[in-house]
Amino acid sequence: MELDKENVVQAVVLGDTFNNNFYPISGEKSLALFPMVGVPLIDFVLESLAQGGVGETILFCCQDVQNIKDHIKKCIDKKSSWSLTMEVHIKTSDSCLTMGDAMREIDASGVIKGPFILTGVNSISNIPYATLLEQHK
């Protein structure tokens, strides 16, 4: 599917919470890969974004990066429903300690083209994101 690169609805998903709420479990595995009913949280988040009208997602993660990359590649290879309508780009950092650090790094990378959806890997909903973003504009 060819996406309209100029008018695509973008989202940024922060794969890290930058806190210790789930420690010690989160010390070994990224929250993005935590299972909910046997399915990693990131799958639910990406599906809700795709269903909400998002065409491009930047997944920003600092922890467990290779496992997240492997998981996303596996989802794309098996043609998960979100991968048919949405592109996912993974941006990583090993120096971010806060959400502010992450947002500064995302901004400096120049991947955001205008207004965007910002969410965390722990946010699952059925919101019509594209409609809400258009109202916000």
Automatic annotation (TrEMBL):
The keyword Manganese does not apply. Keywords: Initiation factor, Protein biosynthesis. One of its GO terms (cellular component) is eukaryotic translation initiation factor 2B complex. GO terms for molecular function: guanyl-nucleotide exchange factor activity; translation initiation factor activity; translation initiation factor binding. PANTHER family: TRANSLATION INITIATION FACTOR EIF-2B SUBUNIT EPSILON (PTHR45887:SF1). This is Translation initiation factor eIF-2B subunit epsilon. It comes from Eumeta variegata. The gene is EIF2B5.
